[in-house]
């Protein structure tokens, strides 16, 4: 089916996956993944080692061929003409010509990108007081990240895909680059999807999460929808040292016992017992509970489910 311009122009979903799967020789890296990420979100792509995060980014950037299903970027199936120009990708090692200077690197970006925005490139580079004549190989990890962000944002992508952008940065550089990323994404209305193991950073930066584990989608949706569905419950074990039966009326994501007490992360299915102590968890606590409990049922908020009434996701 041909892609019409209206598919792209009216897209409300930066990414939509339906039955997306990738099988390597040794098995499935992604299996039957169905989710969507709305336009305008800063989304965290989270999961343990081997979860399938890089495979998903590879499918989006056409470095990897899908085995099953389809992935659409801004309404256009990946691989069709029209999808390529709309995203930018920063790989984890931020590949650049190390013998180029900062100025050479920006000049090459301008020559390769018809929609190059020189003012944005200069603003980002000058914000870090980088000397135009400095060679890429002489830059610190944080400074290289700044140049990579300058290249990416100056190309004016609608979707920016990042593979562990902060992994090699110290805490101060992480903070600075995180703020720069958010400011530039807000300035240009860029949707961001970034993989990371840094859950606390993701909690500060992101308003949407996509959690993969074992090649499956474990959680997807707006953080403000997902987090309030959960409660951290603390209470007493039964006299036989078991979890109280009333806990079973809820979806128990994770439960731990300590002495005669239990604490549990639950998805409420009704009122909770009055004698329990309740608190609202942080996003990081929710994510950790799901990552530690691979058997907990998956959770996709309505926003993240393709085909769900779109009014709820505006
Ligand atoms: N090119 C490849 N050939 C064969 N198997 C691969 C290839 N790339 C990834 N895999 C396998 O696919 C699975 C998912 O790997 P992937 O790199 O996508 O995970 P990840 O979530 O990015 O992990 P990490 O956090 O360690 O980077 C793993 O079992 C991995 O061994």
From TrEMBL:
PROSITE patterns: ABC_TRANSPORTER_1, ABC_TRANSPORTER_2
Entry keyword Nucleotide-binding: yes
Keywords for this protein: ATP-binding, Nucleotide-binding, Transport
UniProt entry tagged with the keyword ATP-binding: yes
A molecular function (GO) term: ATP hydrolysis activity
InterPro entries according to UniProt: AAA+_ATPase, ABC_transporter-like_ATP-bd, ABC_transporter-like_CS, ABC_Transporter_VariousFunc, P-loop_NTPase
Domain (ABC transporter) ranges: 15-239
Listed Gene3D superfamilies: P-loop containing nucleotide triphosphate hydrolases (3.40.50.300)
Superkingdom of origin organism: Bacteria
Protein name: ABC transporter ATP-binding protein
Species of origin: Streptomyces subrutilus
């Amino acid at each position: 089916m041909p892609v019409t311009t209206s598919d792209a122009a009216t897209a409300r979903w930066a990414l939509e996956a339906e039955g997306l799967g990738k099988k390597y020789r040794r098995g499935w890296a992604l299996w039957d993944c169905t989710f969507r990420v709305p336009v305008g979100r800063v989304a965290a792509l989270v999961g343990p080692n081997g979860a399938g995060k890089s495979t998903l980014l590879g499918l989006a950037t056409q470095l990897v061929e899908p085995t099953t299903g389809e992935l659409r970027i801004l309404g256009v199936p990946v691989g069709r003409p029209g999808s390529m120009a709309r995203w930018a990708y920063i790989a984890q090692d931020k590949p650049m010509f190390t013998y180029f200077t900062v100025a050479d690197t920006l000049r090459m970006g301008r020559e390769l990108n018809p929609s190059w925005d020189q003012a944005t490139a200069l603003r980002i580079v000058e914000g870090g007081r980088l000397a135009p004549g400095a060679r890429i190989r002489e830059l610190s990890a944080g400074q290289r990240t700044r140049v990579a962000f300058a290249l990416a944002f100056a190309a004016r992508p609608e979707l920016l895909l990042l593979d562990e952008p902060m992994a090699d940065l110290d805490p101060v550089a992480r903070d600075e680059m995180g703020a720069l990323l958010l400011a530039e994404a807000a300035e240009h209305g860029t949707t961001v999807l970034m993989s990371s193991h840094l859950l606390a950073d993701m909690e500060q930066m992101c308003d949407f999460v996509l959690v993969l584990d074992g090649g499956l989608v474990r959680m997807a949706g707006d953080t403000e929808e997902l987090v309030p569905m959960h409660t951290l419950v603390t209470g007493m074990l039964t006299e036989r040292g078991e979890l109280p039966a009333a806990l079973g009326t809820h979806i128990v994501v994770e439960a731990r016992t300590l002495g005669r007490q239990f604490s549990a992360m639950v998805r409420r299915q009704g009122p909770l017992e009055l004698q329990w102590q309740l608190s609202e968890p942080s996003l990081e606590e929710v994510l950790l509970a799901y990552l530690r409990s691979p058997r907990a049922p998956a959770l996709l908020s309505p926003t993240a489910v393709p085909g769900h009434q779109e009014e709820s996701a505006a």
